[in-house]
Amino acid sequence: MDRDGSGVSALLGLDGFVVRAQLLEETTGEWWLAVETTQERAWCPSCGVRAVGHGRRRVVVRDLPIADRPVVLVWAKRLWRCAEPACPAGTWSEECDEIAPRAVLTERARAEICRRVGPGEQSVARAARGFGVSWHAAMAAVRDHGRPRVDHLARLGAPRAVGLDETSFLAATLEHPTLLVTGIVDLDVGRLIDVLPARSATAVTGWLASKPTPWLAGIRHVVIDPYQPYATAVAKGLPAARLVVDHFHVIRLANTALDEVRRRTQQATTGHRGRKADPLYRIRRRLLAGHERLDPAGFARVLAWLDAGDPEGEVGAAYLAKELLRDSYLVANALEARRRLVVLYDYCAASDVPELVRLARTIARWETPILRWHHTRLTNATTEGTNLIVKNIKRLGFGFRNFDNYRLRLLLRCGAPWQHRPVASIRPCQPRISA
Ligand SMILES: [Zn+2]
Q1: For the chain, what is the HEC assignment?
Q2: CA-to-CA distance for 33 and 17, rounded, in angstroms?
Q3: Do 274 and 242 meet the contact criterion of CB atoms below 8 Å apart?
Q4: Which of 198, 298, 328, 379 is deepest in the core (most CB within 10 A)?
Q5: Where are the beta strands (DSSP E) in 38-95?
């Protein structure tokens, strides 16, 4: 190694350390720096007598890159011995906050890996490669530096409205059914607050119970799917908050009923599941589209195929019920919307179609939180948080089996407080090296 120190020490910028020698490893492009602490004296932690040197031990760790060049520190770690023969302290080695015992990375390099994987959106594998460490070492860095950020209370913000939304996390396999997760979103700013590993009342209740009372008290509205366990959990954990049932999920109830009626009619009239030439199968998508999106010719085709494939008029009735429900969202105030829902209830009852009777019952049961949309206009749709979950599931999908890692990475990406400045601003200058 070349003897060249002080300039590189400044460049390294590691408090309490000086560079004694440096070497550019040609094959790997790594910059190897021999470092040691500037502390020349030590005292026995047990008896306070001044310690004597007991040799050194070599510790190799990877540090932040300098000018995109990977940096390896070779730390000649001092060993000390108590000069007092009767003292039980014996020998010990020096310690430093930046390099933990048995570490393969400096703490600031570990923080940087966490930043790259979190807001930097790199994969753990890529961050690991960038520092020449294993996937596990990189993931441990993400965990150690990420968890305090994610657990930081400031990350909760101060939402007045939150949304609970279910998302599938892992598709069903032979070993387990589809795993569902609950995303909790700050609807004021559209940010994911947390992800829970279940879609259950217990998961939500437990999560709410772990939050500070003043924070909970600030939440005025909770937007949910029409899913009873969510409602139960909110009633228990946030008794002062008001439920709003998500607009999209309400319409989906009607679409589901319509699909069920169509499939049942298909089976009853043809004796088989929908095929390409079957009238009801042809119009299955058009039935679900909003009526206003069909031009007169398109609607005429729907009517013609209903004539051909829906002898009892039940599919047509379900289509109308769906449109009646959608109508309730077209009016400005909740009172008028309620009137339209009553029209829907009457219509469904008179239709004598079991799926529609059930639909009306469900809507009636959720009526108050459904109509609250008219006061609040709150919805879970198109929030950054839910989109992020969906995007991530698509990308990471089946391979991403560890829920804790999944949650951590998701939350680091969307809104964990990030005070660390990026590497570029820590080291603005190019190294002036003449190796
Ligand atoms: Zn001692």
Answers
A1: CECCCHHHHHHHCCCCEEEEEEEECCCCCCEEEEEEECCCCCECCCCCCEEEEEEEEEEEEEEEEECCEEEEEEEEEEEEEECCCCCCCCEEECCECCECCCCCECHHHHHHHHHHHCCCCCCHHHHHHHHCCCHHHHHHHHHHHHHHHHHCHHHHCCCCEEEEEEEEEECCCCCCCCEEEEEEEECCCCEEEEEECCCCHHHHHHHHHCCCHHHHHCCCEEEECCCHHHHHHHHHHCCCCEEEECHHHHHHHHHHHHHHHHHHHHHHHHCCCCCCCCHHHHCHHHHHCCHHHCCHHHHHHHHHHHHHHCCCCHHHHHHHHHHHHHHCCCCCCHHHHHHHHHHHHHHHHHHCCHHHHHHHHHHHHCHHHHHCHHHHCCCCCCCHHHHHHHHHHHHHHHHCCCHHHHHHHHHHHCCCCCCCCCHHHHCCCCCCCCC
A2: 11
A3: no
A4: 328
A5: 51-66, 69-82, 91-93
pLDDT band for position 207 (50/70/90)? Answer: very high
**C-alpha of residue 80 to centroid of ligand 1, in Å:** 10
How many angstroms does the Cα of residue 87 sit away from the middle of ligand 1? Answer: 5
User: Between 213 and 198, where is the model more confident?
Assistant: 213
Q: Give me the mean pLDDT over the 213-226 stretch.
A: 95
Condensed to tens digits (0 to 9), the pLDDT of residues 344-356 reads 999 999 999 999 9
Joined tokens for residue 171: 């598709």
Please name the amino acid found at residue 53: G
What local confidence, expressed as pLDDT, does residue 1 receive? 45
288 token code pair: 């679900």
Distance 74 CA to ligand 1 centre (A): 29
Those residues whose beta carbon sits under 5 angstroms from the ion ligand 1 are 44, 46-47, 49, 82, 84, 87, 89
Residue 47 CA, ligand 1 centroid: distance in Å: 4
